[in-house]
Write a structure and sequence with these properties.
The chain is an alpha/beta fold. Helix content is about 40%, strand content about 20%. Helix 4 packs across helix 5, helix 5 crosses helix 7 and helix 7 packs parallel to helix 8. The longest helix is centred in the C-terminal third of the chain and has 29 residues.
Length: about 350
Amino acid sequence: MNVLGIESSCDETSVAIISDKSVKANLISSQDFHTNFGGVVPELSSRAHLQKVKPLVEAALKKSKLNLNEIDVISSTGGPGLIGALLVGFTFAKGLAFALKKPFVSVNHIDGHIFSGFLMKKKPEFPFLVLVVSGGHTLLLFVKNVTEIYKLGTTVDDAAGEAFDKVGKMLGLGYPGGPQIEINAASGDENKIYFPIADLKHEFNFSFSGLKTAVLRYLQKHHPENKIVAEDLKNICASFQKATVDALLQNVQKALNSYNVKSISLVGGVAANKKLRDEIIELADEHKINAVIPSIEYCGDNGAMIALRAQQLFKNGIQHNLNLTPYPSIPPNHFLEFD
């Protein structure tokens, strides 16, 4: 089965082709110009997707040594994401499926991340725990099988990746802030500054707004003119990164103590963070289970995870119609709740 997947939910245009369990192509065009604006500009993002999607489809086919008629299923991200950006990839994919008379599968962006561990040679074993950490989402989920996903916890305010970006902006590190914070943290003292972690009544939920505010108050007190010397900057980055990772890990630890799982998977853009990856692996070792973390290529938004998820859904009898409704009807709360 050859599945073509298109991802265009934010600021990456990506097209991938999966043949059975093999990734034949996973091409990603990142919109680096958003750094000039300190964040993603939706209108500019949509225009860039328009320019890139067709050439990327052609390049993916060439790399895979396939033609369009050899594609069995066409898929795209259906949400959540920036509506203009989503519409570019979604309508292109639907139009392609209509013209070729091929099945079309709309994929929930978060589901793509959840199952991105299956792109690795070592794959998660059901049931598994998954921590989704990105710029827009922070979720802790129990995955029973390819169609049953239970939500244990989510963020009540900022996502972890959003906190990284906002703190990066406070520190003058530009956008995106996460990679720059990690670089500076590598040579800083993570125990130099104490930043508090939220203690919520719901044992598996997360909160990062207080942590972000704590960094702001520290800067206002110790660096009122925003003149931060290199050593202080590294210590702030290291201490903030430690607090963020600790906040994530404490809930994962609780979940591992409460649920019997065979694997744990860390996914999403923030899964590229080395400290977080290392801590998840160490925690998995303590519980004698496998840790499956996608390679860096599959942590961020990518077409391969969309194609893979579409393949799973199609094999389970799920496909979507090609009506004129531009936006897919994916329920916003598609995760199940434990009784």
